[in-house]
Amino acid sequence: MLCLDAINSDPKALVVSAFLAILVGAAGWVGKLAVEGFLWSYRRRSREIEIMAALLAEIGSNVDAYKVFARPETARRLAEQVRSIPNYKIYIPLYKDLFVFDQVRSEITVLPEGVIDAIVGFYSEGGALDALSLSVQESRFEAFPADRRAHYVEYLRQQAAIVVGKAESAMTELRRQSLRTQNGRARLTVASSVSAIAVVFAGSIALNWAWTACSSGGQTGGMIGGIVTAYRMTMNL
User: Fold this and answer.
1) Parent domain of 172
2) What is the CA radius of gyration of the chain?
3) Residue 107 burial (CB count, 10 A)
4) Contact, 119 vs 175, CB < 8 A?
């Protein structure tokens, strides 16, 4: 009550304390927004890391099958069987269940543009190759001459090599960006922790000073008490 009585007895102290209270209240709201911004940025970066880790695992597992067929000896052996065995039916098990990509497709825009291009490039080329591999199992393909089917097998091998290149490019980009995002999240955490400690320390000093001034009475004490009281009222709006 001593602080409020001092303010009410001096109009100048009342005006100054109200003005300072507004500034302190505004600073409090800015601090609140800063905390919310940090949490949003932290969650976003954490989600980016999760998406990239999942895609990296899926691409890495799928590319193994493409690597097998992309080898020249694999295509050569398959072409020899096409030429030597009448009515030889080609079976290339390249189709994959792209569970991760289907799940995160709607969230992929949170990733950097370069990463998105690499990921989409792999899945697009991989889907085209899967469609080609299914076409060679159709009945109309069996009616083609053996040499033509053998050339088609070589073409599939070349496409598989392209897909492998796309996969390796995507995995390299994912690893690089994932490490960069993790480092950025760590720096953000450190900076936010240091800022929080600084704010708490400065607030403790300010509260101690305000309490001391308020206890001493007078215009200064009244002004400080008014600031504290008005600040509390502002933060409760």
Assistant:
1) 2-235
2) 34
3) 12
4) no
Asked if 222 and 4 touch (Cβ cutoff 8 Å), the reply is yes
- What's the total number of domains in the chain? 1
Give the model confidence (pLDDT) of 1-18 as tens digits.
445 454 455 555 555 555
Contacts by residues 213-219 (CB-CB < 8 Å, ≥ 24 positions apart): 214/2, 214/3, 215/2, 217/2, 217/3, 217/6, 218/6, 219/6, 219/10, 219/13
Confidence band for 63, pLDDT divided at 50, 70 and 90: confident
Q: Is the pLDDT of residue 72 over 50?
A: yes
**pLDDT for 82-141, tens place per residue?**
888 877 777 766 556 788 998 898 888 889 899 999 999 999 998 888 888 878 777 777
pLDDT at 1: 46
CB 157 within 8 A of CB 74: yes
Alpha helices in 11-145 (DSSP H): 11-70, 72-84, 99-104, 113-135, 139-142
166 closest CA partner among 126, 115, 109, 131: 126
Tell me how far apart the alpha carbons of residues 123 and 130 are, in angstroms, rounded to a whole number.
Answer: 10
pTM for this model (two decimals): 0.69
Contact 55, 172 (CB under 8 A): no
Alpha-carbon gap, residue 142 to 149, rounded angstroms? 8
pLDDT at 24 over 50: yes
